[in-house]
Specification:
Layout (H helix, E strand, L loop, with lengths): L2 E4 L3 E7 L2 E8 L1 H9 L5 E8 L4 H9 L7 E4 L5 E7 L6 E7 L12 H4 L3 E4 L4 H10 L5 E4 L3 H6 L1 H8 L4 E5 H8 L4 H10 L4 E5 L5 E4 L4 E4 L13 H14 L6 H18 L6 H4 L3 H15 L6 H8 L1
Parallel strand pairs: 1-4, 1-8, 2-6, 4-5, 8-9, 9-10, 10-11
Antiparallel strand pairs: 2-3, 6-7, 11-12, 12-13
Helix pairs in contact: 1-9, 4-6, 7-8, 9-10, 10-12
The structure holds adenosine monophosphate (AMP).
Adenosine monophosphate (AMP) binds next to strand 2, helix 1 and helix 9.
């Protein structure tokens, strides 16, 4: 049943048109594991510094997330990211990235983590993603995320990681950049040709799409009146998506489609407040209610064209 995630566990400094925070809990593995914890047991692989305190660990503990493989380097500093969003909340502008303790991190998975059925290689150096991938060789379903920072600096290492996973979950700009192809459908084909059996493209406020060699499925994003901080939306989506899959035996296309909706539901809550604030106090009932709204929002009746034309006469 269990789901493993490797990724950044971070302190973020974020500014959006609606406010700012100088230091809040963030990181790809953090947002992912909080979302996934609503569906399954989650284990985090990563590293933090001595500045990572009881307050931060409590966030993981509250949601029952296993941090046995979250290494602490007492004299080190936790990964730090500073970003800014302008009125286009879909685009994060990175102002500073300090790898800190991640620069020398060598992931060593415990025996329990190595047995995970599903794994998510969250956004972090692609070489680390590969090291973890090799340690969960028997996993049934492994997904990967990455970002422009790595595609720009180490594209070959990113491709190497892509070849080793079942699913790639990235945003549209990253897919175009990775494939070197402006037409999204062609970029998707190129990425799928490298080996993954599915590709999930996140499109911010426009939703998300699932590509497989045989099928295409798309979901809108939940129409929110107020968005405070998009940081972590992508990882929260991935957490809902993978968490839902981890709770199911069959990972067929129908299950993946529902997982896309759960990913969208979780992400929609995440952006309502800064950092992890909203997801921390999210409830199962709230998730269920928004899932039903998605069903209503995307449902339509099929009426044969002939009937529509007859009505016009
Ligand atoms: P997203 O879900 O794409 O909004 O991811 C946001 C999170 O990614 C933030 O909480 C950051 O701490 C983290 N992040 C930003 N840049 C990097 C990077 N280069 N490597 C790993 N994590 C990062």
């Amino acid at each position: 049943m269990s789901l493993l995630v490797v990724g950044s566990v971070a302190f973020d400094a974020v500014e959006t048109p609606f406010g700012k925070r100088e230091r809040m809990l963030g990181g790809s593995a953090t947002h992912f594991s909080l979302a996934a914890s609503f569906f399954t047991d989650v284990r985090v692989v990563g590293v933090v510094g001595g500045d990572f305190g009881e307050e931060e660990f409590a966030v993981f503990r509250e949601r029952g997330i296993d941090t046995t493989d979250l290494e602490i380097v007492p004299g080190g500093r936790t990964f730090f990211w500073r970003g800014r969003y302008d009125f286009d909340l879909n685009t994060a502008h990175t102002l500073d990235t300090r790898l800190n303790v991640f620069a020398d991190f060598k992931p060593k998975l415990s025996a329990d983590s190595r047995r995970a059925r599903l794994a998510f290689l969250g956004n972090i150096q692609p070489d680390l993603q590969v090291e973890v991938r090799e340690q969960v060789a028997g996993a049934e379903f492994v997904a990967l995320d990455t970002m422009n920072y790595w595609i720009n600096t180490v594209p070959d290492a990113v491709w190497d990681a892509v070849r080793r996973v079942h699913v790639v979950i990235i945003n549209d700009a990253e897919a175009r950049q990775l494939a070197g192809e402006p037409i999204l459908i062609k970029a998707a084909r190129k990425i799928l040709a490298a080996g993954p059996r599915a590709l999930v493209i996140k499109r911010g406020e426009y939703g998300a799409a699932l590509f497989t060699p045989e099928a295409y499925f798309a979901t809108p994003a939940y129409p929110l009146e107020s968005v405070f901080d998009p940081t972590g939306a992508g990882d929260t989506f991935a957490g809902g998506f993978m968490g839902y899959l981890a709770a199911h035996d069959s990972l067929d296309e129908a299950t993946m489609r529902r997982a896309m909706i759960y990913g969208s539901v979780l992400a929609s809550f995440n952006v309502e407040e800064f950092g992890t604030e909203r997801v921390r106090r999210l409830t199962q009932d709230e998730i269920n209610a928004r899932f039903s709204e998605f069903k209503r929002m995307t449902n339509f009746e099929e009426i044969p064209f002939e009937r529509a034309v007859r009505a016009r006469r």
